[in-house]
Amino acid sequence: MANGFTYKEFSDDNKYIALSAEIMAVRARGSVPLACIRTYGCQQNVADSEKIKGILAAMGFDFTDNSEEADFILFNTCAVREHAEDRVFGNVGALKNIKRRHPSVLIGLCGCMMEEKHVTDRLYKSFPFVGLVFGTHSLHKFPELFYNAVSVGKRVYETGVDDKTVYEGIPTMRDGTFKGWLPIMYGCNNFCTYCIVPYTRGRERSRRPEAVIAEARQMISAGYKEITLLGQNVNSYGKNLEGGVTFADLLRQIDSIEGDFLIRFMTSHPKDCSKELIDVIAQSRHISKHLHLPFQSGNDRVLKAMNRSYNREKYLDIINYAKEKIDGLSLTSDVIVGFPGETYEEFLDTVSLVKEVEFTSLFTFIYSPREGTPAAKMPDPFTAEEKSRWFSELLKVQEKIAAKRCAAMVGNTYRVLVEDTTDTQGVLMGRTSGNVIVEFEGDNSLVGNFVNVCVTQARNWILKGKVII
Description:
Rossmann fold; six-stranded parallel beta sheet; five-stranded mixed beta barrel
């Protein structure tokens, strides 16, 4: 046990996998049972869905994108923004007719939304055809919950049950063959006043470093070229572990593994971004020269109201250190416009920070209240129209910066991981180490491989280039 958390292997649940497989072999409408999994929200949800798929595959399931032919339909939900929540309810409502036509179909929901009581209350009352609901803390119990739903035929709901355990060995079916997600920790301790995540994901807990490193080695051996380490705040990795292992230590150990691969990570919190971490990135062989460090606001009063635990000066200090130490550094960030009580003058502090740092790109959002968070109760005197004008102003500033930065890349050659084809025949797309998209002519056989690309043209966020042999 470390700081109140325990570590267990997943194998105890295997009996429910076998029992469920027996039932579904008979219950399936086709030769094999089919599952349709739809994932909303962040990369952590994607990683969770990959584990659910791994369990379902062990039950004998195959997978389909067509909900009409599925024996099991599961929505893995996100609670970060109200729009995502409304979209889930709308899409679940559309499944009513499928359940009517095919009564044997099991419809389920999981993920962050299921840890919000007002959501599950609404589901239970208004969506009686939903037969399985479980929260983020119950993924390890999915085989048992699934078995109970298909064997008894009654609705199964399990939310809000956190046994403070990290489960290892859950089977995983990854969506990609050369890019993969690697969770290193779960939960969050920061309680930013606008964010629902600590309430839906629970307290911060780190996986043991030996488990993370073993999984990284396994992925590299399997041919993965890009591995993204995941956590709500990767910079605080190791705080609940014995032995004093930090995120910088973990990165250093993964970077020492032999192979041709790239390490990315997300998300970082500025309050825990150490200069040691910057030094590790600067000295590494495999770590991306891209730092995504959300600042949210450039105004100190607003940052304090957000409970971000740093100020503008501290943020710029670590940014300037990173620029000094990491050659070719690409910086990206998240920004919230129109936090409750933010004035236009305070918003301009965000604009000035953006101009000073010159980010490669920004993920910008107009504040969205989330029920159950302190910010949702704060006075908010400014209208949606005013916030939209501010938002547009910020976008115009960032567009100019992005165009300038991309133009400066013309004539340089970058190592690019080829990710996919484009809509134009014979044209591929990939990303630089700095996470900038490049399009170039090439054969489809290059997908999944690293190539050197000379940038020939810049179009705001997308570059055009030519493969250098």
